[in-house]
Amino acid sequence: MITKLKNDFIVRSTVGALIIVIIASILFFIERFYENKNSEKIIAQSEFHVNNAIERLAGSFHNLYRKDLLLMNQNQMTIEDLDLVDSLLKNISKNELSYFVGVEGGFYLNSSKKFLGFSFPTSPPPQPAYGPPPREYEIILKQIQQTSSQKNNLIKLYEFEPTVFILATKQIEIDGQKVATAYSLMRIEQILPVSFYKKFFPIVLFLSLTGISLAIYISWLLRRRVEQIKNGLNAIIENPNLRLQKQKGILGIISDSINSLLDARDKEQTERIRLEKELQVKEKMASLGNLIAGVTHQIKTPLAIIKSKIQLWQKKIENDKTIKLNGIISKESMQDIVIEIDKLAGLVNKLLLFLKNPVQEFSESSINEIINKVILLLKTEAESKNINIHFIENKNISARIDPSSIEQVIINLLVNAIQASDNNSEIIINTYQISADQIAIEIKDFGVGIDSQIVDKIFDPFFTTKKEGYGLGLSIAYEIVKLHKGSISVFTNEPKGTTFRIILPIS
């Protein structure tokens, strides 16, 4: 699944990138086509204007030249003469170029080798006083030199950032003599269509390179994080207790979902094992109950008969002094039999208590009073081992319970604690409220503790590690607490000892 997700992402990313590139290319060629068409039209119109402009400049120069032939044909003109000629030519260029918006121009006089008569009448203020402009000076001079070897007008397009202009030059020849060159210049960068791609090319290039780099990095990062998930899943196969590392983004959501799924699976397995154990216990209890019911019925009556016969013999021996007893049959041996019969009867009674519902009647009862009563009942047994029972009372601890059955639970647990404790030790009983609807009772001893290997079996019927007893005390306590909708659990203390915790609902 992870590999498929990674491949799908790469394929979709590649297809998306190709679609974007194709669309951008189509738009680029369409835009370039219309841009070129418009540019060609503007350039053709501008060439027409500058060509007409130099024709008019050349025609007006002819008339002025013949009128001032002596002045303009001098090889060595004074400054006053140059100023006069410049003024005359400027009037001509100003007059002629006023018909052509955006066109500037003037003359190059061969005899003096100087630019004269520059004018730009349609320029927005302030108008330039001198010309040609410094940046275009060398270009104009070079094209004038090229024009001297041609008979036709020379028109060229020049482009250098940030300007684009068209320059037209015409050689003026009078009576077979090349006397001057007329030039006109029109800047068209403002009226040419601006290419979107040309205008934003640096930005587009930067964004493209950044996008490609980012896509490569994201692809590498995605591949790395997908590999982490894949390796994590392989590790989980080996050790189901492991979990995937926390991640960010959509893969983080995926890894969290996988972890949640694994947690849910573990919880379900734990719950299933618990239910299976509980079912096994119930099945065992059901089978055991049927067996005990039959056995106790068969045993109880014969025991009562045997006990009554022995007691009858005891009374007869006491009343009839003529009866002689040998060493085997004696009052003491008969009393031993009665004691053993009472033990068997006690076992039968416990089995019957275990089989029937021990909970009789619920009522609002004080937990502290029940515990104090049990402590008083077992005081002699605790004092025989010099054990101090310390009860930490939490006031107002009460619940709706069956007092007699909960008393039986406390007795069973406290008897176990006394039996497990060493001489001169302590038992701590604590009551407290967990929440608004639950209370807890804890009985803590400092005895030998319970082996971790058998802790899961201590509530099973007839399971015991003691030489005496039948292993029913904790089983009966467990059933009583369960009938109260509560729970009972056991914990091992450090460095030694055991704590039993009972949780009961208040109502």
UniProtKB/TrEMBL annotation:
Gene Ontology terms for molecular function: phosphorelay sensor kinase activity
Name of this protein: histidine kinase
Domain Histidine kinase, residue spans: 294-507
Enzyme Commission identifier(s): 2.7.13.3
Annotated source species: Ignavibacterium album
CDD domains, per database record: HisKA
Gene3D superfamilies: 1.10.287.130, Histidine kinase-like ATPase, C-terminal domain
InterPro entries (alphabetical): HATPase_C_sf, HATPase_dom, His_kinase_dom, HisK_dim/P_dom, HisK_dim/P_sf, Sig_transdc_His_kin-like_C
Catalysed reaction, written as an equation: ATP + protein L-histidine = ADP + protein N-phospho-L-histidine
Residues that span the membrane, as ranges: 9-30, 200-222
Coiled coil, from the record: 258-285
